[in-house]
Amino acid sequence: MRSVIFTIANQKGGVGKTTTAVNLSAALAEKGVRTLLVDLDPQANATSALGIEKREGASLYGPLRGEGTAIEKIVPTAYRNLFLLPSEEDLAASEIELAGAEGYLGRLQAALAPVRESGQYRAIIIDCPPSLGVLSMNSLAAADYLLIALQCEYLALEGLGQILRNLDRIKQAGVNPSLELGGVVMTMFDTRTKLARQVVEEVRKHLPDRVFESVIPRTIRLSEAPSFGQTILAYDPLSPGSTAYRNLAKEVIARFDLKSAS
Hints:
Rossmann fold; seven-stranded mixed β-sheet
């Protein structure tokens, strides 16, 4: 079983990136796709959202420095088929320590290689920090596909161009020439506003084949779920947020043929 590695990135915070990483991972797992969520954000919000306590030494900080392995850091979650590589605050030191070190952009790729080769996971989803620092660039270097979480606001359109330029830089520099844009997930969609619909239309016009049909709504329940250490699928299974992420998972499975070797 060959793993497909996705990184969910956006240099802007508060766009639903971690919410999407957690709930898409959970929805894929629910549909029988063995999934590993890699929390690469030192804030460890994805770790907390799955109800797993932050522990010193539990993150990729050591493996990124060549100490220990990523495989030994993986923990099961409360959800069948869903596993986590947790984060913790020490991971923030990687931004400084790895910068300028030899082969620093390939550290995550090297750390995840044994995980990928183990054949244990069909999908590996990386949740990045909300910045374009060393950790985020490492995630782009390690991934097969970039998934962009994009808030339904006009300012988000400017950020989209910046992310796409970074994707091109990673490819052209030979760091990860096979990296592709896997898709754009439109998040925080407010059904009451004309602006939200216009933004979705504009992005679809710009990237007609890459924007997922499933649009993630702005709901209180999606905001509440992480504070209870639960995914939206567990916290409120029948909510519009749960429905949206289940539909997104179906699209991801179909687009990337994730069921073929699950």
